[in-house]
Amino acid sequence: MAVPSSGQLSLNGIFAEVDGGDYNNVSLESNISLRELSDDTVDTINTNNDAADRPDGAEPHEMSEFYSYDHDAAGAAGYYGTRGVFGGGNHTSNIIDYVTISSTGNATDFGDLTVGRYSLAACSNVTRGVFGMGDNVTYSYLNTIDYITIATTGNATDFGDLTVARRYGGACSDGTKGLWGGGSKQAGRGFSNDNTIDYVAIATTGNATDFGDLTVARRALSATSNGTRGAWGGGSPSGGDNTIDYVTIATTGNATDFGNLTYARKWPAALSDGTKGVWGGGSSSNVIAYVTLATTGNAVDFGDLTVAREELAGSSNGTRGIFGGGWKTHPTIDYITVATTGNATDFGDLTRSSGTGGISACSGN
Questions:
Q1: How far is CA 288 from CA 80, 279, 337, 365, in A?
Q2: pLDDT by residue (tens digit) across 297-345?
Q3: CA nearest 324: which of 349, 290, 301?
Q4: Sign of the CA dihedral 313, 162, 127, 49?
């Protein structure tokens, strides 16, 4: 039985919901703390609830944050979870690190990618994390997709190939499909910007299929999702770009204009709590900006990263967003509470002190 959607709430009832999944199965408890109910101490908050129907973990903690919270809520296919995973970075790096997003501290080694590579992009269906594209030590652009089971440390396994070998694209997911959009592809001795969006069914393995095209062919962009829409922001058609475009992930087709970031930038990171889409860093900046993904319109200022940088990566557990890595040597991980605007806070460091530019990230359980 979920928490009521309005009216007076019982603290003991909220405890009963978080601890046992039944608001009405109340026993008198002493020393109940709203903070511990909100921050995963009593039990991990179920992020299958919409962001508006669960506590955000940030102070001040209020009983009203639990209106409509259902501890047993089953999500559609998920696209974020409690463990944040970072992979790749630098042309030779096959390192995968992980953190528990709800805590703080330094990352731990997870395993290795199938190919060491730079400028790749990742997404997940909560269970599997998939890493696609990039370029390697010989600067060859790759169509490689590999995957991990996020709950179990170990090395990645080959998944299949993208439709176009490229680097510097952005990836997102609705928990069923994983999409990669944009990037640059090799053209003779140089490169050309690409507008391709391709997708895979994350629960299976195999090669990607064409989805459609971005509104602007560009590289150095990043993507995020609210589980329905996928949105790509920033990038570089020539210099920095402020374009945001979006697709409905369940339906193949070309992207549509969404609005603009607060300024033109390339190589930002992106994440979401299911409501807000947040872009941080890029073009050696510390700026964080956000949009409401269910609508369209221009981004609004959110706050600042702890360190200005580009080529970083982001992920979320549905409440807290983390940004990690960055060019050239930024092992920094910092975090925000996505529901609440403000500056980022130091989280810890990645396992490596160099080769952190061009990194990718996703999350799951």
A1: 20, 6, 12, 26
A2: 999 999 999 999 999 999 999 999 999 999 877 899 999 999 999 999 9
A3: 349
A4: positive
Q: List the structure tokens of 175.
A: 């928990």
DSSP one-letter string for 306-344: EEEEBS-EEEE-SSEEEEE--BTT--EEEEEETTS-S--
Distance CA 53, CA 3 (A): 9
Whole-angstrom CA distances from 116 to 48, 143, 300 are: 34, 13, 36
Query: Which pairing describes strands 241-248 and 95-100: parallel, antiparallel, or unpaired?
Result: unpaired
CB of 108 closer than 8 Å to CB of 152: no
Q: For the whole model, what pTM was predicted? A: 0.83
Which residue(s) pair with 312 in the sheet?
none
Q: Which phi and psi (to 5°) does residue 142 adopt?
A: -120, 150
Say how far residue 282 (Cα) sits from the centre of its chain.
16
> Which tokens hold the place of 63?
């009983």
Per residue in 25-70, pLDDT tens?
887 666 788 888 988 888 888 877 777 888 987 878 899 999 999 9
Q: Token pair for residue 296?
A: 């369209």
Contact (CB, 8 A) for 195 and 184: no
H/E segment holding residue 305: strand 300-309
DSSP calls for 6-58: SS---HHHHHHHHHHS-TT-----SS--HHHHHTTSSS---TTS-GGGS--SP
Q: What span, in angstroms and rounded, lies between the C-alpha atoms of 349 and 33? A: 30
Q: Outline where the chain has alpha helix (H).
A: 11-20, 34-38
Q: How many angstroms separate the CA atoms of 222 and 357, rounded? A: 14
Domain architecture of the chain: domains with CATH: 11-66 (no CATH), 83-364 (2.120.10.80)
CA–CA separation, 277 vs 270, rounded Å? Answer: 7
Cβ pair 86, 325 in contact under 8 A: yes
